[in-house]
Fold this protein.
Amino acid sequence: MRSGRAVDLLDCFTVTGAPFYITTPIYYVNADPHIGHAYTTIMADIIARHHRQRGDDVFFLTGTDEHGAKIAQSAERASRAPKDHADALSQRFRDLGGVLNSTHDFFIRTTDPEHEAAVARIVAGLHDSGDVYRDSYGGWYCTACEAFYNEGDLADGRRCPIHTTPVDWLEEENWFFRLSAYRDRLLAHYDAHPDWVLPAARRNEARRMIEAGLDDLSISRAQIAWGVPVPWDPEQTIYVWIDALLNYRTALDYARPGEDLVARYWPPSLQIMAKDILKFHAVIWPAMLLAAGLELPERLMIHGYLLKGGEKMSKTLGNVVDPFPFIERYGIDALRYYLAREVRFGEDGTFTAEGFEQRYAGELANELGNLLNRTVNMIGRYRDGVVPADRGADGALAAEVAATVDAVRAAHEALDISRAMDEAWALVRRINRLAEERAPWALAKDPERAGELDQALFSLAEGLRIAALLVWSVIPGSAERLLSALGQDPAAVALDDARWGAGRAEARTAPIPPLFPRVEPEEAEA
Ligand code: MSP
């Protein structure tokens, strides 16, 4: 078994395509996961699954960030040793990955001994090549960000611009990375690869930070014992962000012992995160990679914030939504669907329980769930549960469906996951209209129209089968149940099969309970 992998179902794909290495940020283990973390992992999983459906050779990495002052302090508050605290909370994030139905191939922890050793090795390399020097430094520090701020960037009353909590003055002798020396090379990279950071507004923001000039970066801490010791100065520990960023590279050393994943997957094809950590990923990370002589990631996708009450959902702000109860009540696919549809990928979006319930009842339960049940019931009633053969009379519809499949592929290529879902859902609505237009219940009353009835039932089932393949990356469990109900192989979800007539012929349907059963709203809010 592959270590740390959430599911092995996907091994059934024929992998013929290009390597595709995708990452999420590694999450801090200072508190329980919330829906904001779930959002990033779900979006990454949707993209990873889509690439698997295309036959690409996917490696999907997620995990937890466990060192530094933020974690040490939260362990202290919980009266636990840092490692015990990290063990407990890392497990919560791992559990979240499980309930999200995330298909990550490896879950890295920065307390993994292999990671720690690799971080020490890489940082020692930067020191040896002259990119690291010793200096003293004083600045305003936000522990929640694990970052220094310039006076001018602070919010009123010397507060962190992100967390609005007071910042601390920190002054010590540290080791510094010559970030300033990489300004021109970074700008050259931005110019040569205009869309390596998406959306464009974030790219411009990051480019402006570089243009404005970069300060060298303190990469060690004298007073934080909870971290990886600086190899040539064990009195200090490596700054948690340096330790954390390197996870994307170190994981490939040991995720699958005996396999050279670096040769196979480096550099990352796509790294996903929210805009809070843009500077770390779009400025510091590429400079570190240049310094270490490693290739830069192909693309960073910076998404927006999930807001609650108009503010970024965050533990520090105290406005978080716990994903576990929602998932328990509505099922994981409802949450995946809601987030993928409600939040335009790249923009901020608001989470509301009412919006969630509306989409659940109106779109999932009614437009998709009822359509499936009606289709399966009619095939049962009029054709003894066997999907009639295609009579070839729906060429125009088949062409429409093919255009939708192309549109979904194109939207994914543009990383417009929300549009991909809109396109796929247009097919669900098209099939609903088809049911009304053809009215199989009326055709069934006239034996002379048996051929038309056959065609209508085939087209409903076939449209639904293809819709299932298009929504599979977002609502995998439901799409698989849908395929089973239609008598199709639930593992046959390759995008190449999203062609009219490519399914199992004359399949035997199997009625199933509603895909999205009714949930009483008051029950859900309890
Ligand atoms: N540990 C660092 C990341 C190191 S990566 C080398 C960190 N951790 S975090 O726990 O704070 O996670 C931040 C990330 O979680 C965000 O970039 C985003 O991906 C996700 N989100 C956390 N809250 C979120 C929202 N309210 N909305 C959207 N994404 C959210 O930063």
